[in-house]
Every structure is written in structure tokens, then in C-alpha cells.
Design brief:
Elements lengths: L2 E7 L8 E2 L7 E9 L4 H12 L5 E11 L5 E6 L3 H14 L9 H4 L6 E3 L11 E4 L1 E6 L9 E8 L11
Antiparallel strand pairs: 1-3, 1-8, 2-9, 4-5, 4-7, 5-6, 8-9
Helix pairs in contact: 1-2
Length: 167
């Protein structure tokens, strides 16, 4: 049963890219890890439909905070925006029917808190503005897997003005 995550990379990723857990490229997790019984291609198609109508997202890096079960993972919060929240909600709605359980935290978790995990090899400073242009579906293979995390699909966000999801 695949365990997947949907991210907005700060620099473009390509299908087939692979990296160990410790070397994740900087990204905003827009839909936390979830299990699915369907082929990942089904999830990818749902993401493609959302990405084709959702515009790029401009965001600003906020303060540091600690995340994780033991509050030992340093992150930079991303200042929430209406556009980022709409994208998150649209992805939940599109993917939830394909989740192994609609009660998974990815679909029912507490308020969405966009953030960028700080890595040894890369970080981003508070106040930095950036534009998110791509959505990526990533296979969350177990930490011990030699291939690490693998990018299964990527989609450019629409460059259209306005947001057809508002209708």
C-alpha cells in the first residue's frame, strides 16, 4: 500500500528524482503523508486536474518553530495565504476519496500550518518571498529504503490570472 505525500517544491523537481530523507529538497508540504489502496497514477491524475486550474502561489517565510512528534524538527512557518489554503483544500477534496481511510490525519488533521523543514544542507530566512510553481507527488518509502523518497509525478500550477476554484 503506497504512502504518498504532496509537496510544493521551492525549486522544481522532476519525475524520477530520488533522495534520502535527510536530503529532501526544500518544500512546503501541502498534503501530509497518507496511505492509498489505488495506483499512484490515480492520485497523480487528481493532482493534475487541480494544478491545471490553480494559479501559482506567492508566499513569505515566517518564524522558526519546532514540529514533529517530539517537537524536535526545526521548521520555518510559511505565512498562510488564501491561495495556499484553497490549494490545500482542493487537494484534500480531490485525494480523500482515494485515501485508505478518510479519517487519516492528512484529511482531518488540525488546522493546516504550511511550513518548510530546515535541513542541514539548506534553509530559508524569515521574510523571504518566493513563488510556488509546481506540485509534486512523492512516494514516502520507508526511511530504510535505499532509494529514499521518489518523485512520482510533477505538475506546473496554472499561470492563469484569478482562480477558477472560486466559482
Amino acid at each position: 500500500m503506497p504512502r504518498l505525500v504532496i509537496v510544493l517544491p521551492l525549486t522544481p523537481l522532476s519525475e524520477g528524482d530520488s533522495f534520502p530523507v535527510k536530503d529532501w529538497p526544500l518544500h512546503v508540504t501541502v498534503l501530509p503523508p497518507f496511505l492509498t489502496d489505488v495506483d499512484p497514477a490515480v492520485i497523480a491524475a487528481a493532482i493534475a486536474a487541480i494544478a491545471s486550474v490553480h494559479p501559482t502561489v506567492t508566499a513569505v517565510v515566517g518564524p522558526k518553530e519546532m514540529f514533529g512528534r517530539r517537537q524536535d524538527v526545526p521548521v520555518r512557518l510559511v505565512i498562510p495565504t488564501e491561495s495556499l489554503s484553497r490549494l490545500h483544500a482542493a487537494l484534500i477534496d480531490a485525494v480523500r476519496p482515494h485515501g485508505a481511510s478518510p479519517d487519516e490525519p492528512a484529511f482531518t488533521g488540525n488546522e493546516f500550518r504550511p511550513h518548510i523543514t530546515i535541513k542541514n544542507h539548506a534553509a530559508i530566512e524569515e521574510g523571504t518571498a518566493f513563488t510556488l510553481r509546481q506540485v509534486a507527488l512523492v512516494d514516502m518509502a520507508p526511511r530504510a529504503a535505499t532509494r529514499g523518497r521518489t518523485v512520482l509525478a510533477t505538475y506546473a500550477l496554472s499561470s492563469a490570472v484569478g482562480n477558477p476554484l472560486d466559482g
